[in-house]
């Protein structure tokens, strides 16, 4: 959408000496905006270990039931990507827990036809399937389809359809309440209970926990339930956005896992001490209070990471990359168009696995609201120019 001016970079590369004044400014920014967040990675590991231990308990507790199978957690969101825009005490570590169907059940993803939500919403229909045949039929479990109702009632626990579903559809609110109840009852069993006190915070579609250490240090954790679309990096999420509160059986398409994977790939390929995460955090702080969302900013930086060679994201180029980011955003505001990163993107890294049709799809416009409201665009440009 905008050409990134790289002439300054080539001039910088011609001189091996770093500009002392510019490096001093980078240092000032780093101190002023608390850009150094090495604790994020270590605290993320603490959270992942905690949830892994909780899931181990759940597997032993629910092994004979027909609740969803809880898969290993996936860290998502800015804190797990390494750059949270929030102050240290306000950081929330978000973890996706993918759900798989229990034995005798299958998940079928259906577009939400209620008409109230965008096309990126789906419902997850739960179907009972035959367990009589197969390579290794489970003799200890009765087949829901081929045993009588009396046998099932007498000898087997209730089907998923009668516990965490509303009608034939998986219910995000029921799953959240089930998991919250489990966490409260299982907390004393996990090793972390010796070091942290835990409180489950109110949440209707996820499990939010506040962990407090003896020293008073707090950790906020949010567990979000998800269902993978095929073998791709795109999931359906139980957690609604701030602007949308769909019915409890509606699940919203989420790109958080693909985004986290993208940033892991960048970290592996970028030069040591790459400035891309500091650029994100600094720009997020600069844009605080403006009408530009953190997600729009992150999308901008993701585009730039595929447009500008990773060798040009060395720490000494931080101010240039910040300038590029703000310039790109300004162009997008002028043109009322910011392309969603995962739709119709020819520069998509091959490591990211997308469902069929994503690459050929028309790019979604994250600034569509500005295209539909000229007054909102004028106000957004005015606010941006004040920064």
UniProtKB/TrEMBL annotation:
Topology in the lipid bilayer: Single-pass type I membrane protein
Superkingdom of the source species: Eukaryota
Keywords: Membrane, Signal, Transmembrane, Transmembrane helix
Subcellular location: Membrane
One term under GO cellular component: membrane
Limits of the Mab-21-like HhH/H2TH-like domain: 290-349
InterPro entries: ITPRIP-like, Mab-21_HhH/H2TH-like, MAB21L/cGLR
Gene3D superfamilies per the UniProt record, alphabetical: 1.10.1410.40
Family the entry assigns: Belongs to the ITPRIP family.
Protein name: IPIL1 protein
Organism: Rhabdornis inornatus
Gene (name only): Itpripl1_3
């Amino acid at each position: 959408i905008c050409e990134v001016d790289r002439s300054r970079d080539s001039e910088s590369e011609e001189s091996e000496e770093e500009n002392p004044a510019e490096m001093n400014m980078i240092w000032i920014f780093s101190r002023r905006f608390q850009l150094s967040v090495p604790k994020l990675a270590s605290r993320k590991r603490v959270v992942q270990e905690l949830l892994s231990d909780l899931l181990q308990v759940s597997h032993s507790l629910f092994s004979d039931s027909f609740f969803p199978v809880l898969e290993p957690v996936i860290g998502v969101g800015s804190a797990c990507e390494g750059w949270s825009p929030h102050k240290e005490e306000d950081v929330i570590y978000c973890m996706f827990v993918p759900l798989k169907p229990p034995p005798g059940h299958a998940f079928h993803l259906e577009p939400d036809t209620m008409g109230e939500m965008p096309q990126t919403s789906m419902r997850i229909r739960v179907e009972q399937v035959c367990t009589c045949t197969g390579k290794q039929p489970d003799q200890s479990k009765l087949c829901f389809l081929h045993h009588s109702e009396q046998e099932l009632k007498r000898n087997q626990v209730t089907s998923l359809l009668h516990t965490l579903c509303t009608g034939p559809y998986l219910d995000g609110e029921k799953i959240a309440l089930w998991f919250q109840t489990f966490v409260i009852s299982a907390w004393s069993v996990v090793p972390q209970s010796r070091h942290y006190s835990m409180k489950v915070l109110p949440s209707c579609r996820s499990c939010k926990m506040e962990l407090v250490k003896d020293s008073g240090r707090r950790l906020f954790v949010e567990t979000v339930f998800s269902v993978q679309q095929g073998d791709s990096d795109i999931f359906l999420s139980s957690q609604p956005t701030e602007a949308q509160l769909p019915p409890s059986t509606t699940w919203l398409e989420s790109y958080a896992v693909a985004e986290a994977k993208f940033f892991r790939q960048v970290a592996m390929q970028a030069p040591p001490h790459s400035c891309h995460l500091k650029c994100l955090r600094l720009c997020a702080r600069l844009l605080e209070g403006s009408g530009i969302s953190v997600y729009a900013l992150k999308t901008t930086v993701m585009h730039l990471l595929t447009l500008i060679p990773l060798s040009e994201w060395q720490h000494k180029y931080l101010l240039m990359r910040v300038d590029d980011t703000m310039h790109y955003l300004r162009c997008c505001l002028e043109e009322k168009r910011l392309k969603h990163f995962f739709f119709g993107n020819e520069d998509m890294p091959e490591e990211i696995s997308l469902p069929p049709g994503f690459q050929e799809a028309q790019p979604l416009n994250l600034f569509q609201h500005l295209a539909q409201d000229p007054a909102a665009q004028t106000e957004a440009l005015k606010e941006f120019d004040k920064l």
